[in-house]
């Protein structure tokens, strides 16, 4: 099957490394990676339109990173070339482009989780290649690291050595892409908390509940579980003037005290003064009293119309994994115009599990530019009506849940493309009919090529 792909690639202009990006392959991959403390490698295919679009940004980033002291290299590997098959198989490359971070001569391998523009690549690489934990030596260092809108984990030690400190640094390296870490010998530099201590401990700062929480078990797994669980707030919304208010408060305090030891933080909100929170979570006033928990991956768990004596049981079921995720969703539409309307309840089937190429607009109802783009997408959908391999879709991102780990939406409109092979990437071109149409035509997988890629992936999986 790889011979088929190779013969296809010969008809396509390949990506040619310029001055700063290294070209790696079977003859030099191991030797180059083994000499690098930190290197990012992009696995690409010449026929991949998005790989070509990314490469311009990749080259810019490589130019900037080459001027650092020491320089940080970026590299590419042609995964469609038969001689590089062992590299592609070894690192389980299933889609293009795929970026991997190799540290300490390849002893540590991680997925790249930054954005794909030049500045985003530079920022991510500089953060990931620097110290995993900031050495806090002054109040300025502490205030710079510890803010009121993020979770920060700081280790307090008698000396920056020993098993506890080494375990902390292992943890910081492991979770550095999710949280910010710091360490210090002087707890008095912190803006919050007690200043006396007799043994090393962790202090986790967070923008909710009690604002910080301490932990003293320095086993790596224990610290990781503590951080993940302490970052989850459970929010109980109730009517403070209702007849069951006192009972709810009493039960709430008992449950909060019990499960705070397990790392769940609790917030109590007055339903009459939380309109913004209700809009954010897609809640309704007739669901009060209710409890809701949102995890780091964006999944929500909710119990509406809660009774006071149900509180402890529901939290316990959540801890045991017996509560199904709650999904904010508008009703699934029975009819669609040219561009297909997607909602939370059919997002996976329509987008993620679709065997077709999908261009999806995330929009907000109040966004004027979104309405213009929606009109353009309707016209494109009409133009592509005979192409059964392409779906044009749109989704109100303010009223429906979606996988925030796969789709980062910071402004409206935001467009994403999901190929038939399953590759997902953000559209970053001009919002014109011609540009979007040409982008789809260039990047879509045909039924034949998508089936070929699927057979290839299965073959590679069997070889592994």
Describe the protein:
- The structure is a single chain.
- The protein is α/β, with parallel strands linked by helices and 464 residues long.
- The protein is 35% helix and 20% strand.
- The chain contains 15 helices and 19 strands.
- A 5-stranded mixed β-sheet has the order 1-3-2-4-5. A 5-stranded mixed β-sheet has the order 6-8-7-9-10, sandwiched between helices. Strands 15-17-16-18-19 form a 5-stranded mixed β-sheet, covered by helices on one side.
- Helix 7 (163-175) packs across helix 8 (220-230).
- The longest helix is centred in the first third of the chain and has 17 residues, at 49-65.
- It is flat.
- The model is unreliable at 1-17 and 448-464 (pLDDT under 50).
Low-confidence stretches: 1-17, 448-464
End-to-end C-alpha gap: 15 Å
The number of helical segments is 15
The beta-strand count equals 19
Biggest β-sheet strands, sense, barrel: 5 strands, mixed
| Beta-strand content estimate | 15-25%
- In helices, the fraction of residues equals 25-40%
Overall structural class, as computed from helix and strand content, comes to alpha/beta
Q: Kindly provide the radius of gyration, computed on alpha-carbon positions and rounded to a whole number of angstroms.
A: 25 Å
What's the average pLDDT?
83
The geometry reads as: flat
Q: Strand order across the biggest sheet? A: 1-3-2-4-5
Keywords: Disulfide bond, Endoplasmic reticulum, Isomerase, Redox-active center, Signal
Main location: endoplasmic reticulum
Pfam family, one: Thioredoxin_6
Protein name: protein disulfide-isomerase
């Amino acid at each position: 099957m790889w011979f088929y792909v190779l013969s296809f690639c010969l008809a396509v202009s390949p990506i040619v490394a310029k001055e700063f990006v290294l070209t790696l392959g079977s003859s030099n991959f191991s030797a180059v990676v083994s000499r690098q403390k930190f290197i990012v490698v992009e696995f690409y295919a010449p026929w991949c339109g998005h790989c070509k679009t990314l490469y311009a940004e990749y080259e810019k980033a490589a130019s900037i990173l080459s001027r650092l002291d020491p320089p940080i290299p970026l590299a590419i590997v042609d995964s469609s070339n038969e001689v590089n098959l062992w590299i592609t198989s070894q690192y389980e490359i299933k889609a293009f482009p795929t970026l991997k971070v190799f540290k300490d001569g390849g002893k540590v391998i991680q997925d790249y989780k930054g954005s794909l523009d030049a500045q985003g690549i530079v920022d991510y690489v500089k953060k990931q290649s620097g110290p995993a934990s900031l050495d806090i030596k002054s109040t300025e260092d502490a205030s710079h690291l510890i803010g009121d809108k993020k979770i920060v984990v700081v280790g307090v030690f008698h000396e920056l050595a020993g098993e506890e400190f080494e375990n902390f640094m292992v943890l910081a390296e492991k979770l550095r892409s999710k949280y910010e870490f710091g360490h210090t010998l002087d707890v008095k530099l912190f803006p919050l908390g007690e200043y006396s201590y007799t043994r090393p401990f962790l202090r986790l700062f967070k923008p909710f509940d009690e604002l910080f929480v301490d932990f003293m078990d320095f086993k790596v797994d224990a610290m990781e579980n503590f951080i993940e669980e302490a970052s989850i707030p459970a929010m109980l919304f109730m009517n403070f003037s209702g007849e069951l208010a006192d009972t709810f408060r009493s039960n709430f305090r008992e449950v909060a005290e019990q499960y705070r030891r397990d790392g769940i933080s609790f917030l109590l909100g007055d339903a009459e003064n939380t309109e913004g929170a209700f809009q954010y979570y897609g809640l309704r006033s007739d669901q009060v009293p209710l409890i809701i928990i949102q995890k780091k991956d964006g999944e929500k768990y909710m119990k509406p119309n809660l009774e006071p004596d149900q509180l402890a049981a529901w939290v316990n079921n959540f801890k045991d994994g017996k509560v199904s995720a709650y999904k904010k969703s508008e009703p699934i539409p029975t009819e669609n115009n040219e561009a297909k309307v997607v909602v939370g309840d059919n997002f996976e089937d329509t987008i993620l599990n679709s065997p077709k190429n999908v261009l999806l607009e995330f929009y907000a109802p109040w966004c004027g530019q979104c309405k213009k783009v929606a009109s353009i997408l309707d016209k494109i959908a009409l133009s592509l009506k005979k192409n059964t391999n392409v779906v044009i879709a749109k989704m109100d991102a303010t009223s429906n849940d979606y996988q925030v780990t796969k789709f980062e939406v910071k402004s409206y409109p935001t467009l994403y493309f999901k190929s038939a092979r399953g590759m997902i990437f953000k559209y970053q071109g001009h919002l014109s009919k011609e540009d979007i149409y040409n982008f789809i035509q260039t990047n879509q997988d045909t039924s034949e090529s998508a089936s070929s890629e699927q057979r290839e992936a299965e073959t590679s999986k069997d070889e592994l």
